[in-house]
Amino acid sequence: MPKRTDLRKILVLGSGPIVIGQACEFDYSGAQGCKALREEGYEVVLVNSNPATIMTDPELADRTYVEPLVPEVVAAILARERPDALLPTLGGQTALNLAMTLAETGVLAAHGVALIGASAEVIARAEDRALFKDTMAAIGLDLPASGTVTSLDEAERLLAELGLPLVIRPSFTLGGTGGGIATTAEAYRDLVAQGLTASPIGQILVEEGLVGWKEFELEVVRDGRDNVVIVCAIENIDPLGVHTGDSWTVAPALTLSDQDYQRMRDAAIAAIRAIGVDTGGANVQFALDPKTGRMVVIEINPRVSRSSALASKATGFPIAKIAAKLAIGYHLDELINDITGTTACFEPTIDYVVTKAPRFDFEKFGDTVGRLGTAMRAVGEVMAIGRTFKESLQKAVLSLEIGATGLLHGPADDLEARLAEPRADRIFAIAHALAAGQDVAALAHKTGVDPFFLGQMSEILAAERALAALAPAFAAETPEAVEAVREAKRLGFGDPRLAALLGTDETRLRAWRLRHGIRPTFKHVDTCAAEFAAETPYVYSCYEDEDEATPSEARKVVVLGGGPNRIGQGIEFDYCCVHAAQALREAGYEAQIINCNPETVSTDFDTSDRLFFEPLTLEHVLNVVEHERPLGVILSFGGQTPLRLAEGLEAAGVPILGTPGAQIRLAEDRGEFGEVLAAAGLAAPPFGTATTAGEALAIAGRLGYPVLLRPSFVLGGRAMAIARDEAALLGFLGPAFAASAGGAVLIDRFLGDAKEIDIDAIADGRTCRVIGVMEHLEPAGVHSGDSTCSLPPHSLAPAMVARLEAMAATLAAALGINGLLNLQVAIQGDVPYVLEANPRASRTVPFVSKATGTPWARIATRVMLGEPLAGMALPEAPTGLWAVKAPVFPFDRFTAARAVLGPEMRSTGEAMGLGSSFAEAFAKGMLGAGRWPAPGTAILLLDAPAGPLAGVADALAGLGFRVEPAPAEPAAALRAGAYALILEAPCPIGEAGPWEPLRRLAADLHVPWIDTLDLAHAYVAALASRQGQAGWQVLSLQAIAPRREEVLS
Amino acid sequence: MKAVLALADGSWFVGRSFGATGERSAELVFNTSMTGYQEILTDPSYKGQAVIMTAPTMGAYGVMPEAEEGPGPSVEGFIVREAIATPSHRHAHQSLGAYLAEHDVLGIEGIDTRALVRRIRDKGFLHACLATGKVDPLDLVRKAQAHPGLDGLDTVQHVSTRARYVHAQAARAGAPRIAVLDCGVKQGILRALAARGVGVEVFPAAASAEEILASAPDGVLVSNGPGDPEGLPGVIRTVGRLVGRVPVFGICLGHQLLALALGARTYRLPFGHHGGNHPVLHLATGRVEITAQNHNYAVDLAGLDDVLACTHRNLYDGTVEGMRHRSLPVMSVQYHPEAAPGPHDASYLFDDFLALMALPAACP
To answer: How far apart are CA A385 and CA A388, in angstroms?
Structure first.
C-alpha cells in the first residue's frame, strides 16, 4: 500500500531531556523520522523540550515546539496545530507514556487525532506486565515464572511461591528504574517497596531470577501487510541480570546455532504479531539457558529504542526512518534500502563483528564499587567495528576513553569480589583473572559469561605475552617481528599497547609499522556483506588486504566527534558536530566525521559525506588523516575529547582548523592563562598550581580557605571540590590528582556569594561576537552544567552585560580564538572574575542557538574555514523572548549519592523553557525538567523563623500556598505525597546540610528541592505568573527565528 | 600450517589451514548466512564447490549431530576469516576444524574474505584450487584454470542414495505417503515431511518413474541437489514421466528439473544465491518471505505462460523463485522451505504440497 493520503499533518513526540536510559539515540531516531515524514510531503509538528537535539532544529519540522513533554502542554499544541495523527514510537518511553495518557484521557479523540505506529492497545499489551504475560502465554511462548504485585502482602505470597532469587520489574518505567534482583528476603522487600514507588501505576512484576542465563535482543520490523524482518540479533556478553544498556554486547549473535537462532527468530515474530505491533520497529529480549536450551521472552518494546539505534549503526539499516514510513502506510517491499538500492524488505547480513561497551560515571556519585543490576546506570556507550570479535572488543576498549589501552586495565586486586557480582569494571577483572591463570570454565561459572567470549579474551592475552617476548626482534626489525605486529594489529591492538609491550613509544611504533607497510584498510558497512555493489559513506578500519574506501579528490575537512556520552560531554557536542558537517557540505567541502558513539546523529550515515566509525584516539585519527589527506581537522566541536588530541595531531603535522593547539594550551594551562588575564587587565581568583599534596597545602594556606580544586584538562568538573579546611583539602586531593590529565591540580581561592555567568562567543581574529550571556540561578561553585540559567540575564544591569561582552572580546583576541569561545565568570560584589575560558564549543551552544534562532555552530564552522564574521549578515537576538535552561539529575539511580549540587557536574541533560517573560520561561523550563511542583499539595519550609527564606515563604503564602514547617516525621509525610516543593535555607555550596536523608528521599520521589535564594525567588515569580492561568502558552521556534534564510544562505 | 587459495583469474590468497591437508579444485561460491555453517558444509548441494562464508567468525558453537544435513560434509573446502578452535555450546561435540580434518575437508582461515567476495561478485563465480603446506601459488592458479567446473556434468550421482529406503512411516493409517527423488536431499526436507505425519520413502535419482509409481505414492518430492540441471537428462526424463501421474513438488534443483521437464530453460546466475536473507515475493498474497537460498542456476519461464505460472519472485534480482503448473498438480520453489539453515518463513509450502495432494484433481 502506498502512503496514506488521509493524513496531512503529523505530530511527533521527542523524548525530552537526556536521562539515563533515554539519551541521544532518540534524537537520532526522531530526526530520521521527521526527515522521512517530510520527504513524503507530510507537515510535521514536533514537540521536544530538549534544545540540544538535532530534531528540534527548525529545518527538520514545519512547526517545532521546544516545550515541556507533559499532557497539558501537548494538549495545548494539539489544540493549536490540529494534526491528523500522532506518532509516539520515536520518542522512547516518555513519548509512549505521554501518548497513552493523551489517549486514555480522551484528548486525542477530542481533537480527532489518530495514534499511528502503535495503538494504545499495543502499548498496553507490551508495557503492562500482566497483559504482556497473558499475551505471550497465549501463543505458547515460555516466560519466567512470575506474578504481578501491587502491595507488600502480595509480594510476600509470591516470595513463598517462587523462591529466591527474584527479579523485580516495575511497570511503565524507563530503563528499569526502581527494579533489581533480590537474593535475600530483606533485599526483596526493599526492592518491592522501591519498585511500587517507581511505577507510575504502583505495579511491579516479580519473576524467577534466571541467574547465569544468556541474554539476546532481536530488532524486528513489521509492516501493515504483516511482512516481518529481523534487522539484527544482539548478544549480551554479560548474562541476564545486568540491564542490557549496561551490558557489553555483540552483533551478530555469535554463540547461537542456527537452530537456536531460528527458534528465537520464530518466537520474536510470533511475539510482535501477538502484541500487535503492526507497523514499525520493536525490540524483543530473550533469555536462554545455556545448559538446557530453554528460552524465555523477557520483554518487548513496541517502539524504536537504544538497541534499535545500535542495530541501525551495526548494520546500516535505518530502523527509525523505515519505521516512520511504515507508520504512514508503506509496506517494506515498497521501500528501498538506500545503501544497496535494492528492496528494504530484507534482513541485513554483516561481515564484521560489532561490540558495544557501556560507559559509566559511578565515581561522580560516590560509588566506588559500581554494582550493576536490572536498572540501567550507564551514561553512554561506544560501538566498535572489527573483522573479528577480538578486534572489535579491543577497539571498543580504546573507544571508551577511560585510559585503557588494552584489556589489562585498572587494578588487578580484589578479583574474586569483582568477579562474583556484576560491576562496571567486571570485563577488566575478567581479563586480570585470565592473565593470572584462572581457567575459562571456572570463570564462566563465576561470571555467567559464555566461555566463547572468555576464550577469545584469553587468546588476546596470549598474544600479548607472545608480543612481549618479541621486543628484541622488534628492535632488530626482523621479518618475524613484522609478521607479529601485523597479526597484532589484526587482533585490534592499539599502538600504545603494542608500544608498551615492545618497549618503545607510540610515535616510534607508528613510524616502525608504516615503514613496514602495516597500515589499516578501510571497509564499508553495506548491509549485505558485499553481495551487492553499494554506495556507502560508512566505513571502518581493519588490517586486511583490500582497501575499499578510495579517497575522493574533493576538498575535505574532518570533524572529530565527542565519543561516548558521559556526564559533562553529551548530546550538546554531537549537535555541534552535526552542524559543522552541515556547514561544511553547504560550503562545498566534503565533510567527514570520526566518532564511535552509536547513539548519535553524527554517526548517521547521511550526516556526513564519509563516516569513519572509529575510536577517537590519536592513532585512529591519524589513520584517517593519512588515508584522506584532508585540508584540516576540526577539534573544537567534540568537547574535551578532540582537544586532548590537539598536541599529538599538531606534532604529526596535521592542519587544525579553528583555534590552533598552542592557543588551546594557552587557555587550558592555568599558569599561562593567568598571564594572559593579567596582561589583559582582567581579574581572576588568586590561584596556584600544585603537583604534590605539600604544595597544595602551602598554596591553600597562602590563598586562605575555602579553596576550589580543579584538575586540568577535565570536563564536567571531574573531581572538582570546594575545600573549607586542610582536612577536607587532603581528602579531595587524591581523586583530583588522579583525574588530572596533566598531573597538576589548580587551587583557586573560592569566591563565596558570587553570581556565575556563562558567556558564549565567536571570534575570527578580528571581530568577536558574543552570542549568549547566561545568568546562573545557583551561586558560583555549582558546576555550570548543573545550573539553571537564564538567557538573557534576568537580573544583571545592562552596564554589567556590556562589561562582560567586552571581557569576552578582549579574551578572544588575547587567546587568538578562531571559532567558539566559552567563558565562565563569577561576579562578586560588582567585580567580574574570570573563572575559566574554554577555546571550543560549550555545552550551551545548542541552547543559545535555539534561544536566539541562529545556528551558531554552523557560523563558527564558516569562520574556521576563513570566512570573516564581518561579512555575514548575523541577526540580532530576538527581543522580548526569554529562555531558561533547566537541568535534570540521575540521583534516583545512584542511591549512594548525595543529592547536592557542587563543583562536580552530575546532571545528564536539560530542558529549555521559552516564554515572553523570565517567569514564564522558568516555569516551562522546570515543568520540562520534571521540577515543577505538583498542584494541590503543601510546600515544606526548612528554615529558622525569620531565616533567609522568610520573604519567600511569605510570598508563597500570599499566593495561596500552604507553607508548612517540618513535622515530626517529615520523611513519612514526604513519602505520603504531602509536599509539592521543599525549600531549605541555603547551606555552603557542595554540602548537604542538616536535612541530608530527607533530601535523598526527595530525589528518589522526584520532589523539587530548592536551597538557593535566586532559585527560590524564581519559583515565587513563576508561581505568581501562573496565578489564574489554566493552560500554557506555546511558542514554535519557526515563529521566533529571525531572518533564518539569510543566515543560512 | 600455511594454506593458499588460488583463483582462475590469476590471483591468490594466503591463509592458515584449519582442516584437512592436501589439495582440492572446486568452484568457489560465497554464502551470506550468519549462522548454520555445519548445515551448509553438509548440504549435498555444495558437492564440487568450496564455500566462503561472508560472516567472519565460524565455529563458535562447534559441530553437533543435529545439524547434519547430509552424510558428512559435501564441500571441497571451507574458507573463513576466523575459525574458532574452542567452541561453546551445550550440543557441541567437536570443533569445526577437527570435524573438517576428520572428514578430509580443507579449511582455510585468516584471509580477507570480504575482498574475495567482492572479486566473485564483480567477476562472477570462479574456479579455484586450494592447498595446504608449502605450495607454489602459480601452480595452483594453473590448476584452478584447468578445473573443468560443474557445467553440463552429472554431480548428483555422487550424492544420491544408492538404494531406496523408508525414512518415515506414515504416522497414522490413511496419511499420505510421499516418494522423495533424492538428488542430494537435505535432512531438513525429510524432517519437514516426517513432522507432518506423512510416510516418506527415498528413491535414488537414477530410479525410474515406473519404479517410483509402483510404490503408489500420494506425491513425489524432487529434491535439492548439486550442479547443473542440464547435466541430468535421465532425471529430467523421469520427472517428465511423473508429472501428470502424481502430484509433484520440486525444491531447488528439483524445481529446475521440473522446469526443464516442462519445456522451460535454465541458465547460470553470475554468482548464484547462497544465504539466508533473500526476500521472495509470494505473488498470490503479496507477502514477502525471507528465505534460505543455495543455487547457481535459475529457471527462465519465457514463452511458457500458458503452461506454467510464476508464483514467487526474488525481490533482489527478479528471478523466478517458484512456479505452478496451470492444469496439473505440480508446484516448485527455487529456495528452501525446509530452511536448515535459515528462516522458517516458507515452511507453509510443505502444507501447500499436502493440500495439493488432497485435491480431487490431484490423483488422476
So the answer is: 8
What letter would DSSP give residue B13?
E
Burial zone of B359 (CB within 10 Å; 0-12 exposed, 13-18 middle, 19+ buried): exposed
| From B68, B76, B129, B252, active-site residue | B252
User: What average pLDDT values come out for chain B (364 residues) when binned by 10 residues?
Assistant: 97 97 97 98 97 98 97 97 97 98 98 97 94 97 96 95 96 94 98 97 98 97 97 98 97 98 97 97 97 98 96 97 97 98 98 92 50
Q: Which of A355, A358, A425, A433 is nearest to A394 (CA)?
A: A355
Alpha-carbon span A773 to A791, nearest angstrom: 6
Q: Which of B13, B89, B315 sits opposite A345 (nearest CB)?
A: B315
| pLDDT, tens only, A244-259 | 999 999 999 999 999 9
Nearest-CA neighbor of A46 among A26, A28, A32, A60? Answer: A60
Interface of B with A in 156-175 (CB under 8 A): none
> Chains A, B: CB contacts under 8 A, how many?
152
Name the nearest CA neighbour of A442 among A472, A464, A415: A415
By CB atoms closer than 10 A (0-12, 13-18, 19+), residue A886 is buried
d(CA B239, CA B130): 36
Rounded CA-CA distance A394/A1037 in Å is 44
B319 and B334 Cβ atoms separated by less than 8 Å: yes
Chain B residues close to A333, C-beta within 8 Å: 279, 281, 288, 315
- Say yes or no for a CB contact (<8 Å) between A332 and B81: no
Q: List chain B residues with CB under 8 Å of A547.
A: none
List residues bridging with A941 in a β-sheet: A965, A983
Q: Is A1 helix (H, G, I), strand (E, B) or coil?
A: coil
**How many Å apart are CA B267 and CA B269, to the nearest integer?**
7
Q: How far is B91 from chain A (nearest CA, A)?
A: 9
The three cell numbers of residue B273 are 544465491
Predicted-complex ipTM score: 0.98
Distances (CA, A) of A676 to A671, A806, A918: 9, 15, 36
Put simply, the answer to whether A450 touches B121 (Cβ < 8 Å) is no
**pLDDT classification of A1042: cutoffs 50, 70, 90:** low
Q: Check residue A63 and report its DSSP letter.
A: E
Residues of B in contact with A225 (CB under 8 A): 286-287
Query: Which of these, A1017, A1025, A1034, lies nearest to A917 by C-alpha position?
Result: A1025
Yes or no: say if B253 and B223 are a contact pair by the CB < 8 Å rule: yes
Q: Which of B289, B288, B301, B291 is nearest to B255 (CA)?
A: B301
Interchain CB contact of B269 with A (< 8 Å): no
State the Rg of chain A over Cα. 28
User: A832: which residues sit within 8 A by CB, 6+ positions away?
Assistant: A683, A757, A800, A803, A804, A807, A825, A826
* Cβ pair B81:A387 closer than 8 A: yes
Residues A514 and A627: their CA atoms lie apart, in Å, by 12
Which of B215, B232, B136 minimizes the C-alpha distance to B176? B215
CA-nearest residue to A233 within chain B is B34
Give the length of chain B. Answer: 364
**Would an 8 Å CB–CB cutoff place B81 in contact with chain A?**
yes
Which stretch of A204-218, A477-491, A707-721, A834-848 has the lowest confidence by average pLDDT? A707-721
Place of cell 588523516: A625
By CB atoms closer than 10 A (0-12, 13-18, 19+), residue A187 is middle
| Residue in A909, A701, A708 with CA at minimum distance from that of residue A824 | A708
Instruction: With CA atoms as reference, report the closest residue to A513 among A533, A528, A496.
Output: A496
